[in-house]
Specification:
The chain has 2 helices and 29 strands. By secondary structure, the chain is mainly beta.
């Protein structure tokens, strides 16, 4: 498909220079939260053009940050499904905060001071659990927590096990560096694009529902926690839920040193299998799709991949390319409105 179907809108001058956007994707209208470089957070309806300031962040920029592997520190905006709450964090950095946009109040200050924080984005994701918003966030290199974004109250209180040189690993000790988080569309599961030493990406999945309600150790060693695969020197890549069961990972292969190929590996998290040489069960791997590269998105049925050449749509059952939009490389997807967005030179480019 040609670029003629791509719409372009000018960014209103009141929004300033945009640092990041986040979809308010619990609704079917194209409403976005926008973070300006000055720290202002606004709500922008791309259908009506209306925009309103709703908060301001004071997360520091961490000028002493030392980039690793080219990962410059960047501000990342997250939105709850209805836009009541926002989080601003420094990916590959230490600082973040959660804001109640209904009042403009800061409800939770986040400090990611821990080992190797420069190797991963700041682990954070909003979710809905039994009708209320929760926020999942990294509290240490090997610890995640769930908190109430309205009050800042910790919902997964537990004492972190401490590893010493004179003993075996204590119960619940997790030797794992948490990475980018994605919550399944039904809000029941979390996928974590983390890594372990010797450096290998080990994306894992576990039940958010059980973590909050039954077992505060679920993210460490609970019975629902399963690994998807391991890939040497390969993490910080695209990970997306296709639906509430299937997860797609970018890249075909097991080791970045052996030239990973473009494609998507698909895993069914509702089924488990025992792989040769693995101590624990893993999620069942489905047939891969050759070709997708770049950022991954999904509408619940198909896989979309956004690379430098443009946006592509893929049939997961047939493993084939369905459609292409050349010259349109979106960085964000509003799942509720089905809208793809690319920010470029004071414009937003949209499809559809």
């Amino acid at each position: 498909m040609s670029g003629d179907s791509i719409k372009e809108l000018s960014v209103p001058s009141e929004l300033g220079v945009i640092a990041d956007l986040a979809p308010v994707d619990g609704q079917d209208r194209p409403v976005w939260l926008v973070l300006g470089e000055d720290g202002q957070i606004s709500r922008w309806d791309l259908e009506t053009g209306e925009h309103t300031p709703v908060g301001i962040t004071t997360v520091p920029l961490e000028p002493d940050h030392d980039p690793w592997d080219g990962h410059e520190l960047r501000r990342h905006l997250h939105a709850s499904s209805d836009g009541s709450f926002a989080a601003v964090v420094n990916d590959f950095g230490r600082c973040g905060e959660v804001l109640d946009l209904r009042t403009g109040e800061l409800t939770l200050t986040l400090d990611n001071e821990s080992d190797d924080l420069e190797t991963v984005p700041f682990s954070l994701a909003f979710a809905r659990h039994r009708g209320r918003d929760v926020v999942i966030h990294r509290a240490d290199w090997n610890r995640l927590d769930v908190s109430d974004p309205a009050t800042g109250r910790l919902l997964t209180d537990r004492a972190s096990p401490v590893q010493t040189e004179t003993e075996h690993s204590p119960e619940h000790y997790l030797d794992y560096f948490h990475g980018a988080l994605r919550v399944s569309p039904d809000g029941r599961q979390v996928v974590d694009d983390g890594w372990v030493w010797q450096p290998a990406g080990f994306p894992t999945v576990w039940s958010l529902e059980r973590w909050i309600e039954d077992n505060v150790w679920e993210s460490e060693d609970g019975p629902t926690r399963i690994e998807l695969c391991d890939r040497g020197y390969y993490w910080n890549r695209s990970v997306v839920w296709i639906d509430s069961v299937r997860v797609a990972l970018e890249g075909l292969g097991d080791d970045d040193a052996n030239n990973m190929l473009p494609g998507a590996r698909i895993f069914d998290t509702s089924r488990r299998t025992q792989l040769p040489g693995w101590k624990a069960e893993t999620a069942l791997e489905l047939p891969a799709v050759d070709g997708p590269a770049g950022r991954f998105f999904s509408d619940g049925v198909s896989l979309f991949s956004s690379a430098e050449t443009g946006l592509s749509k893929w049939d997961l059952e047939k493993g084939s390319l369905i459609e292409e939009w050349e010259g349109f490389s979106p960085t964000h997807h509003h799942r509720g409105a089905g809208q793809f967005l690319q920010l470029a030179d004071g414009l937003v480019r949209l499809w559809p």
